[in-house]
Amino acid sequence: MKQLIETIVKPIVDFPDEVHVDVVENTSTITYQLSVNKADMGKVIGKQGRVAKAIRTVVYAAGSSQQKKIFLEIGE
């Protein structure tokens, strides 16, 4: 899943080397924390959050086979 998020985000941003995904796993949830360069935040979020929503939709669909709830947090 981490590789999927990086594959989606890296072509969008200006600084692909600064794209990092951290995984925090609990008993019932998996949280992926996406961090990008501050200048790229607008590109990842998109107008009215459309790009972020699309990324989350793909990630949630890919992770639907797992027994845990998946979350994607986007930050700097």
Report on this structure.
The protein has a single domain, classed as GMP Synthetase, Chain A, domain 3 (2-Layer Sandwich). The model has no long low-confidence stretch (mean pLDDT 92). It has three helices and three strands; from the N terminus they run αββααβ. The protein has 76 residues and is α+β, with helices and mostly antiparallel strands. This is RNA-binding protein KhpA. It comes from Neobacillus massiliamazoniensis. It is found in: Cytoplasm. A probable RNA chaperone. Forms a complex with KhpB which binds to cellular RNA and controls its expression. Plays a role in peptidoglycan (PG) homeostasis and cell length regulation.
Number of domains: 1
Q: In CATH, what is the class? A: Alpha Beta
Tell me the Rg in angstroms. Answer: 12 Å
From the helix content, strand content and strand pairing, which structural class follows?
alpha+beta
Helical residue percent band: 25-40%
The best one-word shape is globular
Order of helices and strands: HEEHHE
How many separate helices?
3
Oligomer: single chain
What's the pLDDT, averaged over the residues? Answer: 92
CATH superfamily: K homology (KH) domain
The major β-sheet equals: 3 strands, mixed
What is the number of strand segments? 3
Strand arrangement, major sheet: 1-2-3
Low-confidence stretches: none
CATH-scheme architecture: 2-Layer Sandwich
Task: Note the beta-strand portion.
Answer: 25-35%
